[in-house]
Amino acid sequence: MDYLFSPWRMEYIENHLKDEGCVFCLEQEKKDGPDNLIVHRGHKVYVILNRYPYTSGHIMTVPYIHRSTLEDLDPLTRAEMFELASLGMGVLRRIYHPQGFNVGVNIGEAAGAGITEHVHLHVVPRWMGDTNFMTSLGKTRVLPESLKETYKRIIAEWTKYKT
Fold first, then answer.
1. Is 120 a catalytic residue?
2. Whole-model pTM?
């Protein structure tokens, strides 16, 4: 089941998790490993795998502080978000050899943010033709590896580099 993603399933999961508190605040309190999917902790920001990835290797940089928008973060936190995104792109290039990346922040529900209360930056590796009939017609994402395998690959590569 790690391989399939349905947008309808995600809506249910996000609504369910909102009842328990902020997902990003809860994950940062856990011990790092395949359960919380945090691959790196910086000074003000951590890097985590997206639990419902668009593609394999989809990571996010997340500030420890709970804020809903970039302008509510101090300049050092914003800078670290983008520096870790850049480092993450290098790690993902070495592992997955993507042909491009989508990097972005969705702020507010109108902008497509699934988690509106805690700002985060997405880094999504992309390949030519990575949107196929399953995505277009079936509204289902098919991933070539499980999240645990993605975590193992990224953590192994990330630990080679000092930050």
1. yes
2. 0.82
Residue 5 — very low, low, confident or very high, per pLDDT cuts 50/70/90?
Answer: very low
DSSP letter (8 states) at residue 86: H
Instruction: Place domain 4-158 in its CATH homologous superfamily.
Output: HIT-like (3.30.428.10)
Work out the burial of residue 57: count CB atoms within 10 Å of its CB; fewer than 13 is exposed, 13-18 middle, 19 or more buried: buried
Q: Is the pLDDT of residue 113 over 60?
A: yes
47, 66, 55, 58: which is closest to 115 by C-alpha? 66
**Annotated catalytic residue within 58, 118, 120, 122:** 120
Token pair 């590569």 is found at: 157
Residues near 144 by beta carbon (within 8 Å), at least 6 away in sequence: 3, 56
**Chain position carrying tokens 């997405």:** 122
Alpha carbon distance 69, 66 (integer Å) = 9
**How many other C-beta atoms can be found within 10 angstroms of the C-beta atom of residue 79?**
13
What confidence tens digit (pLDDT) does each residue in 50-105 have? 998 888 999 999 999 999 999 999 999 999 999 999 999 999 999 999 999 999 99
Could you identify the residue written with the tokens 């993605």? 150
* Secondary structure class of 153 (helix, strand, coil): helix
CB 63 within 8 A of CB 79: no
* Annotated domain spans of the chain: 4-158
